[in-house]
Each structure stands twice: as C-alpha cells, then as structure tokens.
Amino acid sequence: MSAIFNSHSRIAALLCASTALAACGGGAPAPGDFAAACNAQGELTPELCACLDEQAQQLTPETHAFVIAKIAGDEETALELRADLDEDQAFEAGQFISRGVQECIIDLPDTAAG
Q1: Domain limits for position 105
Q2: Whose CA is closest to 105, among 42, 57, 45?
Q3: Which UniProt keywords apply (predicted)?
C-alpha cells in the first residue's frame, strides 16, 4: 500500500512542479515529465511512454501540463488547467490523447506484440 501512496505522491509532486512552472510563466514542463507520469500509471509500456513524451514536447506548455495531469489521473488539476486552454489548445490536447498511443504503436511495432 505504501508503494501505491509513494507513487501517487511522486506524481502529485511532478504535477505541482510542472503546472506551477507553466502557470507562472517559468517554462514548459520538461522533457521526461510526461513519461514519468505515464510510467507511474503503469498502463503503458516504458517505450510507449517515451514515445508519447517526445510527442508531448510539441504541445504548448499549457496543453503539455494538461495532458500530464490527464495521464496521471489527476482530474482536479486537469479540470483547472482545462479552464485555461483556448479552443485550439483543447482540440490539440484531445487529438494528442486520442491519437498519440495509436501513432506510437505504429512507430514502435515491437511494442504492439508485447
């Protein structure tokens, strides 16, 4: 049980740091932030998480922080961040979430068999 709590604590700390930086104009979430949240969830392979992290680098800082919150399962933070996204950013986030895994599976065919 403590391993689960520690995992969620690390995700929460990562999200707080990432979203605080983006919200304060201190910069975008860093490379690896999305992969860390994705790997902590444990639902995707590390290879898929790394691929998605690379794709997330193309997002705006606000959209990037939002998709990190979504993959981490932090709906409260995601809802707060969603309120700050404009229409284009919201569309971009939806496209990333719905198509990112499919694109990475195509790019990393060995992960589909795993």
Answers
A1: 2-113
A2: 45
A3: Signal
Can you spell out the DSSP letters for 35-88?
A: HHHHHHHTSS-HHHHHHHHHHHTTS-HHHHHHHHHHHHT-HHHHHHHHHT--HH
Q: List the structure tokens of 13.
A: 């700390």
Structure confidence by residue, pLDDT tens digits, 28-54: 799 999 999 999 999 999 999 999 999
Total of domains in the chain: 1
Let me know the angle formed at the C-alpha of 66 by 103 and 25, rounded to the nearest 5 degrees: 120
Residue 35 to residues 24, 51, 55, 81, Cα–Cα distance (Å): 22, 8, 10, 19
Contact 28, 21 (CB under 8 A): yes
Cβ partners under 8 Å of residue 2, min gap 6: none
> Which amino acid, residue 8?
H
Q: What pLDDT is stored for residue 27 in this prediction?
A: 56
Asked if 15 and 60 count as a contact pair (C-beta separation under 8 A), the reply is no
